[in-house]
Specification:
144 residues, globular
Length: 144
Amino acid sequence: MVWGILSGIALAFYTLYAVPLLKQYDSLVIVGWAMIIGGLGLSLIHPPWQIDFKSLSMETYLYLICLILFGTMIAFWFYIESLQSLSPKETSLLSSLEPLAAVITTVFWLKEPFGFYQWLGTACIIGLILVMALASNKKSVDQP
């Protein structure tokens, strides 16, 4: 519960704070500094100098490189870049589909079981997206 609340606060912060930064700096600069600051902060919790890199296989290194490049750097860069053409509300709304895509991938590709509580969470995500989309459409229709 705590990690979920902290994640929500972090999402709101970097969605709203990035908009004025994008007026001054390139999106790659913003993402680069965010990665450096985040990495330094997490180094205090999990120091990378305590990892035994010699025990990792070549396959592990390849997975790690793919995760860093595609799962983190490029994903955050696309997210920050989207703030130049979408509103923060639209961007965060679309980003809420990511957990849904991860679940679908896990269930169908990795053949992981999907229980009642997972379906309930999925319904909550879809319901929230629909409520926000309908509220957004209603506001745009009501405005002259």
